[in-house]
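Suppose a colleague, Dr. K., hands you the sequence of a protein chain of 492 amino acids and asks what its three-dimensional shape might be. Before reaching for any lab equipment, you can write down a predicted structure in token form. Begin with the sequence itself:
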Amino acid sequence: MALACGLAVQHAGGAVAPPAPHGVTPTSAQVAHAARPFYTFCHFTVDTFTGAEWGSGAEKPAIFNPSAFDANQIVTSLKAAGARGVILTCKHHDGFCLWPTKTTPHNVSASPYKDGKGDIVREFADACKKHDFELGVYVSPWDRNSEHYGTPKYVTDVYHEQIRELTTQYGKLFEVWFDGANGGSGYYGGKGGKRRIDAKTYYNWQVAWDMVLKNQPEAIIFSDVGPGVRWCGNEKGHAGDPCRATIDFPPGEGFGNVNTGRLNAGTLGGKLWIPAEVDVSIRPGWFFHENENPRSPENLMQIYLDSVGHGATLNLNVPPDKRGLLHENDVESLKQLGAHLRQTFAVNLAANATAKASNTRGNDPAYGPDKMLDNDVWSAWVSDDAVTTPEVELALAVEKSFNLILLREDIRLGLRLEGVAVDAWLDGQWKELAKAESVGSCHLWRVAETRTNKVRIRVTKSPVSPALSDFGLFLEPAFAPWVPPLGGATKP
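The predicted structure, expressed as tokens, is then:
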């Protein structure tokens, strides 16, 4: 969560200049995105009322009538988990729009919700503003309802116009999400059949992305190829280790057609900065189904470690039920996750350590290793240019017990670390506790509970001088047995 892995943007002062960036570096929007490593998805549409995962497009708007919809209940429950924002499925593949769009009659104004005067997107935007929560939008490129899908008219008059409406009418957006599912069978205005398109070219993606960035310059654009953030290659809740923020796409790969292994790992020395996003649902399905139960808080924490802890961002889907509320079991699991995250990261046990290294950049105290321990104002320890495998030793005032380790590097200077290890002084010698091939915006290691008064960071491989921006030792508490409030089988 941002409490532990947030990245502010103030440089340390000092007479010695920082090193030159190594390789590709993130945009300012991508740096800001690293400061919101945990956010949420909200899948809600006609599928909520039919039990489908992918609607056919033939669903009647009359079925969309949540009896007690409350965006405030949804937003406050998500925020209690420690999330920073929510991405709403404003239009899924079925083509039903949750706002009164002018592009199609297949929208919320044709439903009985608020006698056709409702706007679900507006209610989410208002709730996010009220509760200091960020808003994102999902707008599916595939539309199984539109008779125009597969023709140029759909792209220019329907899809691009829907993007324009969403990016200009609902305030500031932190992310715009583009799904990779495209083409196939559908209702298509009653004509039925299948529509085949070339996903790489049909939607005029550059035009769409330029529109998003013009209307929402600080927003991150998600698709399997970015350009702001990429898919991690699975929906199981884990990024690779390593999962580098840099990537290359070979000829022939593009939107809707990317090697999932490459997405999960990234590319060492890649020429594109497109970090991974882990999208996963709290339930087996993306939409609410009565016979399913949510994941336990303990399982959600493991997903957090396997996503945020591998340098990716976590996008956790929590779907409203037919009432238009998050189910009580989901709310309780989220609440317990948030409490656990806050308790875990409340105290950095390394915060008052004495740090020393013989390779501080130009011997300038502005880049001393103690700068890694400052969680309030961003700063970094950078070794001399010629020193690519330095070590930093941290002496704690007294012995302390920890079972979770955090390390970050200054991503604005590029991905510089290719090998790092953390040791503890135990029984008169150094013992390796953790290692990784990539760190990026955040790396978390869960280790056996260790008690010591000395730890050491060893950079084992780096093509240039490393720049470490944060280090932490934490004691994660044990989880109590998970008991859903309204019963049901316990899920992982």
